[in-house]
Input
Amino acid sequence: MGRVLFSKRLDNIEPSAVRVILRVIGKSNIISFAGGLPDSALFPAEEVKRACEKVLEESAYRALQYSVTEGVEELREELYRFMVRRGVLPGHPRDDEEILVTSGSQEALFLITHVLIDSGDIVVTERPTYLAMLQILYDHYAEIVDIDLDPNGLDTYKLEEVVRSLQRENKKPKFVYVVPTCQNPTGITMSMDRRKHLLEIAETYDILILEDDPYSYYLYEPIDVKPLKYLDSSGKVLYVSTFSKILAPGLRIGWVVGPREIIQEVAKAKQVLNLQSPTFTQFVVTNLLREQVVDRRLPLLAEHYRKKRDAMLNALETYVGDLADWVNPVGGMFVWVKLRRNIDTMNMLQLAVEKYGVAYVPGAPFYPSRPEVNTMRLNFTYPSVDMIETGIRKLAELIRELST
Ligand SMILES: Cc1ncc(COP(=O)(O)O)c(C=O)c1O
Output
């Protein structure tokens, strides 16, 4: 084959450390804190099997047929009810809002960016932020303005300064992308005050907020957080979520709810991309929602993952208490660790995998700018409690080796 001339946009997709890591996850002798995988032992395989059978018995002809781009009507109805039950929406949706079903929330993030962002348009993100969203933004040549997170979440005071200074140049962010609850990668949860302030800014300066919320449906502490969407009285929030962390990522069902004007454009873009998400899977998820399978799982997930989170926090305290600092997450899947010594965790990764048999995601790629190279993201939902304990002990040995 001759030389293939790929498109320029491929230059934006880095051959990232994450991909190197994903390759090692499959190796059985590696303890992996990389990836964002739920515990496969918790997948509701029996319930999914029964739902599949029921769908085929009762609705095969519709479930195996093409359906509308926005998503199967019954699923969209069930999704609204689910969001109201779980406190995402205060009541029935606003008249000017619409819901659209996607193939995982990743597709929703991509499509929203696709319909809103031209090359050079400004997007505000948290610093650090979700890596795969950054890749979408790079892919669309967005100009990223990243704003620091502190223990209360996005620094909204800094955001307001940034918005004001952009205003002086007649510019404005197209949207602010946030993961307000149990953020990926840091595990930080935005305080209610900051949430309200963020919404005030969105309203005052007429800026859209893209709220990405895979993790708020179960928490490990009884804290009071409400999604921005719940608090949004002016229709500024595009809310994106997914069944990946509450049912199973292999189903690939996510959704977005937001201003109809935008959702209609997202639907057009989705039509170009893949016409629709699989009808059959949508019917299956509808059934699981109707049977309350999802709702019943949430307390079980919280209980199970709380134990794993605690195992990781205890192991960190025991083995790396003097070498690192970290954030205690109230939910989600990750602990964000910052080494006290300025060791580059990207350079450390190969040794971690090859000599110590442990993998993690180095922190640098999560930063749109000014990476803090001594950071790393550790996943606690996938490995067993024993593996967490052993893996952190090994990681500590490695950090000690490099610290002396
Ligand atoms: C913050 C965030 N957004 C979106 C996604 C994408 O999830 P999915 O496409 O499986 O719904 C993830 C997955 O880990 C995530 O952590």
